[in-house]
Design a protein that fits this description.
The protein is of the alpha/beta class. It is built from five helices and 15 strands.
């Protein structure tokens, strides 16, 4: 082997070693801001310290609890059931290689950041059993690889974005037990034959949410009998008032006629 080839081989090896030692600035920013936005009262994330964020991955392994790496990048974050509080940092979108995010069964509040749209490789999003508020961001549609969206048992409000029905890979969708309102988008409830359909359990527990596959709303608005009853009642009341008015008018008219007759008889001479 000549000197040129030896130099080339050594250069390649050195480059690989150097790249392996360098951290990804996006992942570092992602983890730094996420740790600042979350509170850890049980100290479950003891090794989530800034000095560890500079190089969170060693090829496919990570020193950070709940983090899994792939090719030196954060691939999965599983921080479920750790009694975490705080909010979801919008800088989480910097973990652009993230394919699974599980923050379920905590006490996280605030909105779901629309910035998550930058997680274009995301396949699993589980934010269930928290205290998240606000609306479901329609920008999640840009995460085209999403297979699972689990948001049940939160405090989410507003309508379900119709755009989510465009996620053709979506096989699990659960927004039950929130405060959602409006119609269930047909793009989710009545999907084409080759796409998974979601049953009532995916939507139940939202008082103001309606439409297939949920059963018809009960005690919502007036029933036909109630409307008929109100109509009959109003008609009867009008009839009674009209009859009373006529009676009063007749009584006044009779009194006037009696007075007039009295005046005429008083003026007529006796014969």
């Amino acid at each position: 082997m000549d000197v040129g080839r030896v130099v080339l081989v050594l250069w390649v090896i050195a480059s690989v070693l150097i790249l392996g030692c360098l951290s990804d600035p996006n992942d570092e920013a992602c983890l730094t801001h996420l740790s600042k936005s979350l509170q850890d009262p049980k100290n479950s994330l003891q090794n989530w310290r800034e000095e560890n964020f500079a190089k969170p991955c060693n090829d496919s392994t990570s020193n950070l609890q709940g983090a899994i790496c792939n090719n030196g990048r954060i691939y999965k974050l599983s921080l479920n059931n750790l009694s975490l509080r705080g909010t979801i940092s919008p800088f989480l979108s910097n973990c652009t290689n993230l394919q699974a995010l599980d923050l379920s069964s905590n006490y996280i509040t605030g909105p779901i950041p629309p910035d998550l749209q930058s997680l274009v490789n995301l396949a699993v999003l589980n934010l269930s059993a928290n205290r998240l508020e606000g609306e479901i961001p329609p920008q999640l549609t840009l995460c085209a690889y999403l297979n699972i969206i689990d948001l049940h048992d939160n405090l989410l409000t507003g309508p379900i974005p119709q755009q989510l029905g465009l996620l053709v890979r979506l096989s699990v969708f659960d927004v039950s037990n929130n405060r959602l309102s409006g119609p269930i988008p047909s793009s989710l409830s009545n999907r084409s034959a080759n796409l998974p359909r979601f049953n009532a359990s995916s939507f139940e527990g939202n008082k103001d949410l309606y439409g297939y596959p949920l059963p018809p709303l009960k005690n919502k608005g007036l029933s036909v009998m109630a409307i008929v009853g109100i109509g009959l009642g109003s008609g009867l009341a009008s009839l009674v008032l009209s009859f009373t008015g006529v009676c009063i008018w007749l009584k006044i008219t009779d009194r006037k006629m009696a007075l007039e007759e009295g005046k005429i008889s008083h003026l007529m001479p006796d014969y």
